[in-house]
Amino acid sequence: MIVCVAVVGHQNNPLYLQSFTEADDELKLHHIVQCSLDVIDERVNNPKKTGPTLNETFLGLLYPTENYKVYGYLTNTKVKFIFVTTDLDVRDADVRNFFRRFHSAYVDAVSNPFHVPGKKITSRTFAERVSTIVKSFGMSAAA
Amino acid sequence: MIGVGKIKQHANVLDKPLSKGKQEVSLSAFALLFSELVQYNQTQVDNIAEFERRLEDAGYTVGARVLELLCHRDKVSVGFQEDGFVYCLRCLFISWEDRVSDEVDERPNAVDNDLNVDKPKETLQNDERPGKETEGRHNCWGFCPLYTIQYGRCYLERSINSFLSEMQCGFHEVNEFFFTVRSVTSAADSLEKGTEHEDEYMISEKELLVNRFISIPKDMGTFNCGAFVAGIVRGVLDGAGFPAIVTAHFVPMEGQQRPRTTILIKFAEEVNTVLSLFSFHFCIGFEVIPAIVDDPQC
Question: Which family does it belong to (chain B) (predicted)?
């Protein structure tokens, strides 16, 4: 179950932040997303020699906390996608698939001429697409 | 029996689902759209410099969005700073086919980097990050090229996202009017590195697509509608992290009626430090026009 999805710009400014649970833990989830940004910076600035370098878009599991897992994805323009999930066993393929569709939705949102790059994404269509993707992630992982 | 078939077809014409339409748009439609853009801006400004600036800003917004889109479509990831920069230039200028075919064995996943779930990418963990130590080889990757040169011909690929929706009234959210114009027969490009300054590069083309149906009146001096293209280039470079000042100039050539257009790219200071860290081999494999380059290794 994905509980939180975030898009962070290249100056680490939040562009989109959405949680999919009851509002109690919302602040905690935002905090987790912030912490994972540090992990991303670390990965980007110190590339491991044996680490995944070619597919630098997908950063993988960033940060396993007590009952959450955080996955990250980096685009070419240094925009980061992060999601937090409570599933304990998540297949790699599912995550990549999720990010691919999420990237597609993001590109569509950015192509909007009324979107100012660097500001928050306020498109309703984007929000709907994201919630659809999130729901289907839950389905496919359960199946 | 045949008659029955024909009647069926007629009845079904209305029931047929609408076709998606072609992915390409005619050059004339694009030219008309661009002429409207130019005319609209002409009425808004008082002088030529501002006119160019407005066209360039329009191109900048396009370039920023195009970068996202092309990266996503071609699913190529960009290395940061050094690699990305070299690859940027490489993609922009040199013979893409040559480089890919030479090195496809050495970089197994460099070109096709899609997140295909069928093929587990265990090679990802073993790939080395290319660095300065791999001299003489361009095992780097980057974003999808705006201009790709293949065997001396230039494919100019342009995409203008939701451009029409700017012209239309109303707040359509993602009215993505997307069209690509491919010009297969345009003349060869060349990459030149400026000799007087280290941080200047030039793309020159015989005739820009946007300028094809435009002739500048004499009283406008050196104005060039290629400022739009310069803006696109600037938007792409900026999005990739290489801030630059990009301008478009006419360069008259003897023996030709219309002057060539040159897009001059002058990189910002912070990019210079990156440039000085490693040498460029981008002239290798470049077979169209000998590049004017300082680099002794070329």
Answer: Belongs to the TRAPP small subunits family. BET3 subfamily.
% of chain B surpassing 90 pLDDT: 5
What is the ipTM metric for this complex?
0.80
Task: Give the range of the structural domain holding residue B241, as residue numbers without chain letter.
Answer: 48-76+170-286
B67 versus B174: which is more confidently predicted?
B67
Residue B274, domain member (yes or no): yes
| Distance between CA atoms of residues B249 and B237, nearest Å | 19
Cβ pair A111:B129 closer than 8 A: no
Strands A14-19, A2-8: pairing is antiparallel
Across the range B287-292, mean pLDDT stands at 31
Give the tens place of pLDDT for each residue, B76-107.
Answer: 544 444 344 444 444 443 322 333 333 333 33
Cα separation, A104 vs B68, whole angstroms = 10
Sign of the alpha-carbon dihedral angle for B162, B166, B167, B170: positive
**Residues in chain A whose beta carbon is closer than 8 A to a beta carbon of chain B?**
10, 44, 47, 49-58, 75-79, 93, 96-97, 99-100, 103-104, 106-114, 117, 123-126
Q: In the CATH hierarchy, which top-level class contains the domain A2-142?
A: alpha beta
- To the nearest whole number, what is the mean pLDDT of chain B? 58
- The enclosing domain of B219 has a CATH number of 3.30.1380.20
Is residue B256 one of the residues assigned to a domain?
yes
What is the C-alpha to C-alpha distance for residues B136 and B139, in angstroms, rounded to an integer?
9
How many contacts (CB atoms, under 8 Å) link A and B?
105
Q: Delimit the domains of chain A by residue range.
A: 2-142
Number of neighbouring beta carbons within 10 Å of residue B78: 26
Residue B63 φ then ψ, to 5°:
-60, -40
Give a yes or no: residue B165 inside a domain.
no
Tell me the whole-structure pTM to 2 decimals.
0.63
Torsion of CA B204, A111, B239, B226, to 10 degrees: 20
Task: Give me the number of domains chain B comprises.
Answer: 1
